[in-house]
Fold:
Amino acid sequence: MAPDKKPADSNAGSGKAAERRSNHALREVLDELIDHVRKISRSRDDLPQDQSEYAQERLEWLADEVWRLTLEGDPVE
Structure:
């Protein structure tokens, strides 16, 4: 590896990597958000208006949930 390149997992052993592994609720919601965005992206031209509106509402709810868990943390912690 070139000296000016960082390894792919440059956060290994850092607080950020440990936080990602320990905040399971946030990780789950982020995974769900990513999955939802991918589904919307694949079908955006074929979604009827009502499904498009629901997809947008769900996207906003998931984003709000990510924000809440980022600020407050997992209540189980």
